[in-house]
Amino acid sequence: MAESPQLDGVLLARHGETDDNLEPLRFQGFTDTPLNDTGRRQAAELAERVAGRGIRSLWSSDLSRARETAEIVGARIGLAPALDPRLREACRGRWEGHTFSEIARAEPDLYAAWQRAGAGFRFPDGESLQEQMDRVTAAVRDVHATAELPALVVCHGGSIRVMLCRRDPRGLDAFHEFEVPNVAVVPL
């Protein structure tokens, strides 16, 4: 059974678009890819959407795509983002920088395992989804315990998905069931 989040007052937001979010999709992971111009416009739109929500603290992954999104939001709402590397996307190991289709062709069995996800899946030379869930959960719990609420946490699609899996009875088996578009806002 999934764990109840118990993290009221924390909102998660995905960063704006990067070139690697466009077809053909690439595994980004810890690779520090910047926002593109569309991503910057999306971040400004996110800032407008959250401006009236009384956000009292702002947090972000330290990767530039999330950090820049948070800085654009922060400029609008008058907050500087606190950076936490635990909010990063999963370390996707040797898959980082490669397209999904390249990996599907080169390592079909591992790619199929990725499509099934689950607590036991580990990126080759990277981290497991369970390790990502544990690290992101610890960071979000710290935000909840120490920050002024409501708090906005700008992070990554996979980081948001693992948090959503915490409240799904299927756990990490549900990872691919959640769609988290760029600049989506998800309450916990």
Explain what the structure shows.
The structure is a single chain. This protein is α/β, with parallel strands linked by helices. It has one domain (10-187): 3-Layer(aba) Sandwich (Rossmann fold). Helices cover 38% and strands 10% of the residues. It is built from 6 helices and 5 strands; from the N terminus they run βαβαβαααβαβ. It has helices spanning 37-50, 64-77, 100-106, 108-116, 129-146, 157-165; strands at 10-14, 57-60, 82-83, 151-155, 185-187. Strand 2 (57-60), helix 2 and strand 3 form a beta-alpha-beta unit. The longest helix has 18 residues, at 129-146. It starts with 9 loop residues before the first strand and ends with a strand.
Fourth-level CATH superfamily: Phosphoglycerate mutase-like
Query: Class in CATH?
Result: Alpha Beta
User: What is the rounded distance between the termini?
Assistant: 17 Å
Low-confidence stretches: none
The major β-sheet equals: 5 strands, mixed
Keyphrases for this structure?
5-stranded mixed sheet; 188 residues; Rossmann fold
Short description:
With 188 residues, this protein is α/β, with parallel strands linked by helices. The protein contains 6 helices and 5 strands.
